[in-house]
């Protein structure tokens, strides 16, 4: 599940570029970009004002803790 992998990459409070997310989550570029778009549209991640980096939102952290955390274990 690509969305879970992206949230897992961002969950520790990281601010990562799409390329860094792709590498950390071990996804293809296409899968990572698609997951980023889906998570952004649901308000679970947001772009930071610094160099096109992404960070998890409080709503995303709650979703990760309840729904997606099992995928990270």
Write the layout of secondary structure elements.
Blueprint: H1 2-10, H2 18-25, H3 29-41, E1 45-47, E2 54-56, H4 58-72
Antiparallel strand pairs: 1-2
Number of helices: 4
What's the overall average pLDDT, rounded?
A: 89
Q: Name the shape in a single word.
A: globular
Overall helicity: 55-70%
Computed Rg: 11 Å
Structural class: mainly alpha
End-to-end separation: 13 Å
What is the element string, with H for helices and E for strands? HHHEEH
Strand order in space, largest sheet: 1-2
Largest sheet: 2 strands, antiparallel
Low-confidence stretches: none
Give the tally of β-strands. 2
How much of the sequence is in beta strands?
5-15%
Task: Provide an overview of this structure.
- This protein is mainly α.
- It has four helices and two strands, in the order αααββα.
- Strands 1-2 form a two-stranded antiparallel ribbon.
- Strand 1 and strand 2 form a beta hairpin.
- Helix 1 crosses helix 2 and helix 1 crosses helix 4.
- It starts with a helix and ends with a helix.
- The mean pLDDT is about 90.
List keywords for this structure.
two-stranded antiparallel ribbon; 73 residues; 4 helices; mainly alpha; 2 strands
